[in-house]
Design brief:
Elements: H1 7-16, E1 20-24, H2 28-41, E2 45-50, H3 51-57, H4 59-73, E3 77-84, H5 87-95, E4 100-103, H6 110-125, E5 130-135, E6 140-142, E7 145-147, H7 157-167, E8 171-174, H8 195-205, E9 210-212, H9 220-228, H10 241-249, E10 252-257, H11 259-275, H12 282-305
Parallel strand pairs: 1-2, 1-10, 2-3, 3-4, 4-5, 5-8, 8-9, 9-10
Antiparallel strand pairs: 6-7
Bound molecules: glyceraldehyde-3-phosphate (G3H), 1,3-dihydroxyacetonephosphate and zinc ion (ZN).
The site of zinc ion (ZN) has 5 residues, from loops.
Length: 311
């Protein structure tokens, strides 16, 4: 089995009413924790790499580690660029072995977003690579860019047919109230997503895969673990799991998760070092971090995404 693109997995996910987890990867322990969980549950996977991850870990190291995970597990795994912000970045990932890319033109005006997405699609499709576009703007933090709630905007259902048909993209990321990072809602605010917009988009695009970014649930148990062992995170609120399950049963075929992985990993490392202050072998605390990632991803696959047994 080689790396796959997202076309086949999305087609099955749409028909089956479940979603594929797209997990951000930055190092070996994260890749191993995610792929060990998916392997035990026979779940298809998307491993995604941001520009920041590429800068941190090096493109070639990440590709080789993900390829190693494919040969170890035999799972259908897509290697995806998360939030590509230019044609050049997407091209570099396509040329360097990625099987899927996101071109995020959501910061551009509508016609410019269409033009750059179309350009990436033309280059990608000639090489068997699938492309995710984005319409609408999420709040939150991506790399060094912080989009305030005032600058965020929901996806306009009136634009989706035009965008998808003129760009030829294979999936569409939309903004319905999720946001990046651990602080998705203000303290005391009740999480809400615009399912009416999702349903309207689904009706217009019938059968077309939708992507949900900013979909971490910010599990209170991990926030507690971070804070119980010396962390100082303010109260955080994520997307309730029942909302993600509902999205997965609708047109959402890809659910992006990064912040939950960061929390699980940091909580486990803090706990380990607090409980064993004499330890200084990184394999001891990173081993616990990898186990926490595995547990978290197994929970997401079985309780949120519903993609277990679908590989
Ligand atoms: O959407 C952003 C992801 O959480 C990736 O974050 O750009 O800091 O690697 P990063
Ligand atoms: P979270 O910050 O909610 O994990 O979202 C991650 C994401 O959308 C990556 O593209
Ligand atoms: Zn995102």
């Amino acid at each position: 089995m080689a790396l796959v693109n997202t076309a086949g997995m999305f087609e099955k996910a749409y028909k089956g009413g479940y979603a594929i987890g797209a997990f951000n990867v930055n190092n070996m322990e994260i890749i191993q924790g995610i792929t060990e969980a998916a392997s035990g549950l026979k779940a298809p996977l998307i491993l995604q790499v941001s520009a920041g991850a590429r800068k941190y870990a090096n493109h070639v190291y990440l590709v080789k580690m993900v390829e190693a995970a494919v040969s170890e597990t035999g799972l259908p795994i897509a290697l995806h660029l998360d939030h590509g912000d230019s044609f050049e970045l997407c091209k570099s990932c396509i040329d360097g072995g990625f099987t899927s890319v996101m071109i995020d033109g959501s910061h551009l005006d509508y016609e410019e977003n269409i033009a750059v997405t179309r350009k990436v699609v033309e280059y990608a499709h000639e090489r068997g690579v699938t492309v995710e576009g984005e319409l609408g703007r999420l709040a939150g933090v991506e790399d060094d860019v912080n989009v305030s709630a005032e600058d965020a905007s929901y996806t306009n259902p009136d634009q989706v047919i035009d965008f998808v048909s003129r760009t030829g993209c294979d999936s569409l990321a939309i903004a319905i109230g999720t946001s990046h990072g651990a602080y998705k809602f203000k303290p005391g605010q009740k999480p809400q997503l615009r399912f009416d917009i999702l349903e309207e988009i689904e009706a217009r695009l019938s059968g077309f895969p939708i992507v949900l970014h900013g979909a971490s649930s910010v599990s209170p148990e991990y926030v507690k673990m971070v804070n119980d062992f010396g962390g100082k995170m303010p109260d955080a609120i994520g997307i309730p799991e029942e909302m993600l399950r509902k999205a997965a049963s609708l047109a959402v075929c890809k659910i992006n998760i990064d912040s939950d992985l960061r929390l699980a990993m940091t909580g486990a490392v803090r706990k380990h070092l607090a409980e064993y202050p004499e330890h200084f072998d990184p394999r001891q605390y990173l081993g616990d971090a990898r186990a926490a990632i595995k547990e978290l991803v197994a929970h997401k696959i079985t309780e949120v995404l519903g993609c277990d047994g679908k590989a």
